[in-house]
Design brief:
The complex is a heterodimer.
Chain A: H1 2-20, H2 41-49, E1 87-92, H3 111-115, E2 122-124, E3 131-133, E4 136-141, E5 147-152, H4 166-177, H5 184-193, E6 194-201, E7 204-209, H6 215-222, H7 238-241, E8 253-255, H8 257-262, E9 267-272, E10 292-297, H9 301-310, E11 315-317, H10 321-327, H11 331-334, E12 338-344, E13 351-356, H12 366-375, H13 378-384, E14 391-392, H14 415-424, E15 429-430, E16 436-438, E17 441-442, E18 444-449, H15 455-465, E19 471-476, H16 479-487, E20 493-498, H17 507-510, H18 529-540, H19 544-561, E21 564-566, E22 568-569, E23 572-578, E24 581-582, E25 608-609, H20 611-623, E26 631-634
Parallel strand pairs in A: 1-10, 12-26, 18-19, 18-20
Antiparallel strand pairs in A: 2-3, 4-5, 5-7, 6-7, 8-9, 9-10, 11-23, 12-23, 13-20, 13-21, 14-22, 15-16, 16-17, 24-25
Helix pairs in contact in A: 12-14, 13-15, 18-19
Chain B: H1 6-17, H2 19-36, H3 38-41, E1 48-51, E2 54-56, H4 79-89, E3 94-96, H5 136-172, H6 174-188, H7 192-202, H8 207-218, H9 220-234, H10 237-244, H11 249-286, H12 297-306, H13 311-339
Helix pairs in contact in B: 1-13, 2-13, 5-6, 5-8, 5-9, 5-11, 9-11, 10-11, 11-12, 11-13, 12-13
The chains are: A alpha+beta, B mainly alpha.
Amino acid sequence: MPKMRWMLSCLLGTLLVGCSEPPEVERSGEWTSANQLVWTPEIASARRALLEPYPALGLSALPAGLVWETHPGTPFLGSAEARPGGTFYDHASVYPLTLRTVGPDSNNSFRGYLLANQWSLTTLHPDTETPIPELALEWAVSADQTTLFFRLDPAVRWSDGVPVTADDYLYTLEFMRSEAIVAPWYNNYFTEQILSVEKYDDYTIAVRGAVPKPAVDLHTSLSISPKPRHFHVLDSGWVQNTNWAIEPNTGPYQIDRRSLVDGKGKYLVFQKKEDWWGRHRPQYQGRFNVDRVRIKIIRDPNTAFQSFNKGDLDSFALVLPEFWHEKAKGPAYDRGYLEKLWVYNDAPRPSTGVWMNQAHPLLAERSIRLGLQHSLNFEKMLRTVLRNDYVRLSQHYTGYGSYTNPAVVPRAFDLAAAEGYFTDAGFAQRGPDGIRVRDGVRLSFTMTYSQAVHTPRLVVLQDEAKKAGLEIKLQLLDGQNAFRNIMEKQHELAWMGWSTGFRPAYWEHYHSANAGKPQTNNITNTAIPALDTLIEGYRSATDASTRIALSHQIQARLDAEAMFAPGYMVPYSRGAHWRWIRFPSAAGTRDGGGLYDPFSSASGGLFWIDSEIRDETRAAQREGRGFAPVLRIDERFKP
Amino acid sequence: MMRLDPITRTKLARFRSIGRGYWSALILAALMGLSLCAELLVNSRALLVFYQGSLYFPTYGAVMPGTVFGEDYAYETDYRALKQRFSEAGQGDWVVMPLIPYNPLEINAYEGEFAPHPPNAAREHYLGTDIAGRDVAARLVYGFRIAIWFSVALLLSTYVIGIALGCWMGYRGGWIDLGVQRLIEIWSNVPFLYVIMIVASIVTPGFGLLVSLMVLFGWMGMTWYMRTATYKEAARDYVLAARALGAGPWRIIGRHILPNTMSIIVTFIPFSIAGGITALTALDYLGFGLPPPTPSWGELLKQGTDRLDAPWIVSSVVAGLIAILVMVTFVGEAIREAFDPRRQVRYA
């Protein structure tokens, strides 16, 4: 019986492998979506030849007086000492549900790896925030500040060898607007925010935006990433057919097809392109050095950390204090086999803290909100649980450079001030349990949060708030339910953080148009007419200095209203790596990039693998020899 | 004075003669009893304060703000600091603190050190602190109280339902028995853990809700045993005699059948208690149990396994779990031995 079962499972195994093996190519010239699974340069160029080019306006149609700009001369990030070659062993916590980057299930954590190899027209220099070339070599801004003109680099090729031309950018708009991709957000963005893409010749295009903006902001919203026109078939089967299709891309690496079959569910390999177009650009010298990046799927961070310590992974991010201080120590660190790296950055900060729902009758009172702010002992939380590695956040919009109002500072834990505000609100008396009461109503709020690892942090707030006569009940819900609860404005206090944008976004969070209705980001239910006026002014201003001035005013007003108690921020990236992973003198960038990121065009692929050092380290491990321990702290961008 | 029949007395005597079971039962009963007054043993509130000629008993009752004892704050008095101040001032005031002067929720921070703090007798953290700086011993004690009484509540509710339904099925037999059996089979196939996970992700389960949920999916086990036992007993002559005298079904079940199936019930009790404790611990470990900051063994176990570099957390809770479960098992073994029907009844 066991033997039979074994045979059965073997049979099943072969069947499964057989199924995931790509079907034989039909080279008849009949193109179906299913054939995209097998994609060779021959098929690609044959298919490309069948496409009708989009009509061009001609270079004479370009507006007069355009000022073409190019690389501003900011220093390149790559190191001259970098050596090519080797495999970088990385890990991720989940295997992707699809390899698509748009459409259902595509918004997973793995998408970052894929998007990092789908490059755009231009990018911003990670240290200086000035535009630098990527797929386009030059650009110009229209007189009305709504449109960017680009001159494309003719050397750019898709991973299948087909040149990237203006047609691919025009097609991008068609693609992103198509209902076949089942991505309403993209459908909307490429309709409302990007009005059109125009072709002047094969290597000159214009991207027209909906609203005038300062030049740098135009780059962040209009510098689109092309889609391979010869690859996609936008029919009703697109979502299904492209689930596991390897889309041609423009970045330095592409998914290795074999790893998709052999390692399904377990690992994925990105292989460096043999003749990548960017190899000869000075900008990318000393970048993207490793030949292969193997991403192993390890669900549990503790297990992943053990793999790293064993040498199965090359690097490990150690942002959490207990990992950095307690777990990442021992002989392998003392002997210098494993090196630690801590790089401060200066970027927009996620706004982690306590969000008060002003639809709650008590939280609608400003003095209660102020009292609550002074009852939250973030200082103790940072000191005891987070070892002062994390830093107090000053407001919702911290780290936005000149757009951040430096005069806004967080409120300290201050029992006297809390007492004063709560007394003003009529909560002078304390009940038998030490919690304040007013006409039989206790000063008690439920705080909704979604991550169990935050519990030790929040119990500090809970315990200390009791001193102020405030009760905080903690409600841990799983991520989806917590988010739904908050988006439906069912919460009283929410512990969460918004991710960041390039510029502060006020309308979605604080405009009255979004208050009092579900599924908007105004989770504090803020509706203040004077604030609305400021926000509208900020949205319509095209001139940077006006926007900055309005931004400061809005932040001052938000601070005065006190509906958000700023928590903490993590102003650094840090981790540990085996000593054969080498870095340039600047291992990270101002925007938090660099370190162990293998791909991103702006700041990825800075490190390299030194095989001699690896052999030396392995020999030393065998012989029990050690090296000097290494801890590198880069404080160039310390706030 | 309750009169015990001779058979029960022999059973009890035999139970007493099995040393480890008997002593385990005594210790467990003592622990359960003591856990009810845990506030007197493990607490940040003082047992007794003598201040300016009057005595205070802060343990139970309303919060006493610091101002009562001449401190300058309006929140609850820090009695450990007060004790220190009184002994330094030497004005005849004094404070008596409990054995472990911490409550399970308070966070203790020490300058220049980070939680978890290792065991330290001078600070009276006999088992150290957890990752938030809360005293492990205090959390163990209060966690035990919750786990054991959770278990008892669970046991009582499941047994009431299980025994009543099982007896009824066994006594009536026929279609009722068949029908309820099928219903139970269907109900048993509802994946209990999923239900708990779904419920816990939507609402934060409290003590009552968690007990009710576990009862809802846990009463079935007992019905099978009681049904079989009742079937067997119902066919005996004394039941027929009772019926002939005109006794109703519930009187027969309650007065005649139930006492004769008592040995089955009693034998199962310790194992159900152990099951209840492990179930709550497992749920807390997975994060679907009682909401934070409720002291719980499962949560301590989770912390401990995440932080093996702080071995005092995991070793305390594992030692506690092993001790309790081993004792419960000893009791169970002894009861099974003592109530074994083959020792009293001889079948032809």
